[in-house]
Amino acid sequence: MHGAPPALAAKFAPALAASGRPLSCTSVPSGKLAAPDIHAQAAYRGGMSDAARTLFLVCYDVCETKIRRRVHKFLMAYKIGGQKSFFECWLTAAELREVRLTLGELIDPGEDRVHIFQLDPRMTRDMLGRAIQPPVDVFLIV
């Protein structure tokens, strides 16, 4: 087990040998964040091209705190950027249908409102203050 501490190597060597896996370890990249796993990204996306996803701005105004938390938690799974009740989301057509259906069930149509705007990702963004460009290169929705 190259790169592993001797005690750790001795502890796990019999189990690894029995499993038939190679007895070497790959090193973890140094720094705060590891580089994106390109192979995992390719496996996830499969045949899905970037053209299959569209950028949307989802905004909500929900009166009741309990419902507002549920809406916020739901949209957190799709967001790539945003703040408070405004979320930028890259969505496929199926994900957009799911977002519309779920939000329609969560909110009270008599008091609350949700707006979903399709954005053009080719447009340049005007950013002021502490605004930063959101990452859009690699993301995974689990």
Report on the structure:
This protein is an alpha+beta fold and 142 residues long. Among the domains are: 1-27, no CATH class; 53-118, Alpha-Beta Plaits. Helix content is 34%, strand content 18%. The protein contains four helices and four strands. The chain has helices at residues 6-19, 38-45, 65-76, 93-106; strands at residues 54-61, 79-83, 86-91, 113-118. The chain has a four-stranded antiparallel beta sheet, with helices on one face.
Regions with pLDDT < 50 over 5+ consecutive residues? 25-47
H-E string: HHEHEEHE
CATH architecture of the domain at 53-118: 2-Layer Sandwich
Please state how the strands of the largest beta sheet are arranged side by side: 2-3-1-4
Shape label: globular
Distance between the termini: 32 Å
- Give the integer mean of the pLDDT values: 73
- Give the strand tally: 4
Q: How much of the sequence is in beta strands?
A: 15-25%
Specify the structural class. alpha+beta
**Percentage of residues assigned to helices:** 25-40%
The number of helical segments is: 4
Determine Rg (CA atoms, Å).
22 Å
CATH-derived topology of the domain at 53-118: Alpha-Beta Plaits
**Oligomeric state, counting identical vs distinct chains:** single chain
Largest sheet: 4 strands, antiparallel
* CATH C-level label of the domain at 53-118: Alpha Beta
Q: What's the short version?
A:
The protein has 142 residues and is of the alpha+beta class.
Name the features.
about 140 residues; alpha+beta; Alpha-Beta Plaits; 4-stranded antiparallel sheet
